Fold this sequence. Notes:
It is built from 13 helices and two strands, in the order ααααααααααββααα. It is mainly α. A two-stranded antiparallel ribbon has the order 1-2. Helix 4 (about 65-90) runs antiparallel to helix 7 and helix 6 (about 120-140) packs parallel to helix 8. The protein is globular and about 65 Å long. The termini are far apart. It binds benzoyl coenzyme A. Benzoyl coenzyme A binds next to helix 2, helix 6 and helix 9.
Amino acid sequence: MQLYEKQLNEQFEAYIADDNKIEPKDWMPDAYRKTLIRQISQHAHSEVVGMLPEGNWITRAPSLKRKAILLAKVQDEAGHGLYLYSACETLGVEREDLVKDLLSGKAKYSSIFNYPTLTWADIGAIGWLVDGAAIMNQVPLCRCSYGPYARAMVRVCKEESFHQRQGYTIMMELMNGTDDQKAMAQDALNRWWWPSLMMFGPSDKDSKHSAQSMRWKIKRFSNDELRQRMVDMTVPQAELIGLKMPDPDLKWNEEKGGYDFGEIDWEEFYQVIDGNGPCNKDRLETRNKAHDDGTWVRDAALAYAEKQKLKRA
Ligand code: BYC
């Protein structure tokens, strides 16, 4: 490393150690930039692909009120994707290239969106558990060292908290309903619980990026710390409405002040992130079709912008 670059690096590390925010025009090491582009773009893709499992239920929501709520939630996810692509672009990458990587299957997005939504209760389980996990992971990201990402997270977290409550109220209503409705809610919890815990990423001993990301204050807590908090927050919520956690090893541990829980099926996790989950192929095909079908909209918007520019010139 050149002396000059070494000094810049030391200044950068000290600036972060003092809890300052790095802004787009500030000097930053290439590896920091690369890590942020990786994480923020994967996050943006997750928001966009995340619309698909829920979008599947908009036409079948059980009432007009539920349809309106679900529609608003899915639109929020699109908005989150847009803020995140914008935050990512401040790092010097083109949105078009990021989207290309998603559509070709090169880029990752959250494992959770590769599972099917089989019943209405799945919409409750997604809001309660998936958005619940998202809040747990994203509230600390509001303090991320990169300014544009941290600021985008503030609004995202407010909206995620509404999403979590809409999911939990669906589960509550089902658990106050008929035996069939209760069984449907329990079945959704059984299928979504373990994939929701996988959202936090590999266990700390296998997480290749965590140590560096925590030193740079991109991540504030490790994958396992956040997963533990998720379990501790969710178990009492399940008990309150009469749901049973699908984990025979779940047990309160007085000494640690949290729950012990069973081992995650890491083989399943790696299969899903390698593209072999139940819906990976379907999700990518749907996104590609939506992108192709939307070409005329992008072309029209560009033509309109061009016309306006000429008018002003
Ligand atoms: N799924 O070293 P690690 C939402 C990858 S959107 C797929 O621990 P890191 C919502 C990881 O990328 C939810 N891949 O990595 C939307 C890495 O692969 P590469 C999305 C995963 O980055 C709509 C490798 O495994 N949230 O909530 O330190 C509706 C090693 O992992 C997963 C975010 O993106 C996974 N679950 O930590 C409702 C939050 N886990 O890149 C809800 C921001 C790990 O080396 N992201 N991988 O090929 C993060 O906080 C972190 O990136 C992670 C992973 C905790 C996810």
